[in-house]
Specification:
The chain has 228 residues and is an alpha/beta fold. The chain contains three helices and 25 strands.
Length: 228
């Protein structure tokens, strides 16, 4: 069983830990976190240090793999680039909860997380470092670009496409044949019946354009406000 670390000691990190433990393929040695003090306990495991400590930790603890537990798509991508430079030999693993239902001919990229109760239907393609949260579903022939995410309770129809860095928030529904372009946000509880343009925020039933956004703009409740 390979030794791995989870990068991000947050509530989301605890959920990723649960997926990995129940999957039984990897042994989680501890957490890596840029903001929490080394030695801090999180979900029964130790924060081993930050990303700069990875090369030393890999040698010391025989760590061969890692997975990101960072909910914000853009920040997750920045950290992925940084870790790739610091520890290029570190393998990025995926975490799929055993309760997940996966259809035939589904492709899942490296570093992705699929939470309890999710359904990924046949011929879907899930990119690298994606998140499919609890009880969400991806329709047949759906496509999720790298670093995109679907929140809990989201339902998407067939032939759906989600662009890189884009997010669909809690409980939203997306009808079939919809293209949600890159860096976009669909608000919680929305019903998406038309394509969504890149770098936009939409919400409502039916979902409508609210405003434009930038790639670094926050969208999670715990995010910091965008800087000037």
């Amino acid at each position: 069983m390979k030794n791995i670390v989870i990068i991000g000691a947050s509530g989301h990190g605890g959920m990723v830990l649960d997926c990995i433990n129940k999957g039984g393929r990897y042994k989680v040695i501890g957490f890596i976190d840029s903001f929490k003090k080394k030695g801090t306990n999180h979900c029964g495991l130790e924060v081993l240090g930050n990303e700069n400590d990875l090369p030393e930790l890999m040698k010391k603890l025989d760590i061969t793999g890692a997975i990101f537990a960072i909910g914000n798509n853009w920040i997750r991508s920045i950290m992925a680039l940084k870790v790739a430079e610091i520890a290029p030999e570190l393998e990025m693993i995926s975490a799929i909860h055993p309760s997940v239902i996966i259809g035939e001919n589904v492709q899942i990229g490296k570093g992705s997380v699929i939470m309890p109760g999710a359904i990924v239907n046949s011929n879907a393609n899930i990119g690298n470092h994606c998140i499919i949260n609890t009880n969400a579903s991806v329709g047949h022939d759906g496509n999720m670009g790298d670093f995109s995410s679907i929140a809990s309770g989201v339902c998407t129809g067939g032939n759906f496409s989600l662009g890189t860095y884009s997010v669909i928030s809690l409980g939203a529904n997306v009808i079939e044949n919809i293209n949600i372009r890159e860096h976009s946000v669909v608000g919680a509880g929305s019903l998406v019946v038309n394509d969504v343009e890149p770098y936009t925020v939409v919400y409502g039933s039916p979902a409508r354009f609210i405003r434009e956004r930038k790639e670094k703009d926050p969208y999670l409740s715990g995010d910091k406000k965008p800087s000037a």
